[in-house]
Amino acid sequence: MKTQNLPKIILSLLVLLLIMGYFLKDNLNNFISEKIKKTSGTEAIISGEQWVDSLFNYTKNGKNFEFTLLQFKSNGCTICKQMEPELEEIKSIPEKNVNVVVLNILNSNSQNVMRYFGISAVPTHLILNKQGEEIYRKYGYVPAKNLMIRFRK
Fold this sequence. Notes:
The chain is of the alpha+beta class. It contains six helices and four strands.
């Protein structure tokens, strides 16, 4: 009798682990991101900080944007491709005044920025405020309407 229940117990445990993994994926992604930031060298941090400050600190550089939406993507990523119309929708709303920037993780110029932000998976979406400070982070597919909610002063 006990050996008949063993496959059911194992299957139940596997299903439970899958469900837990699904709901805890953001926590795991954030944990890995923090580890990447901590292990990044000083050069990557300074380089990333200078890049963000020069391009996305609109109070300093005088550009007329309120927010920046950074998306880190890869060419072979299916979810990244699904996000393209969502990003276009955000770009097409002029009153939001959002600078949408897509960075390919395979581009060597993006490596220090990835380390600076601790990017561990794609697609990762970051929203920066007018001062270039991160105010929102989300991994995976995010509908445009969910991102636009974040563009509030």
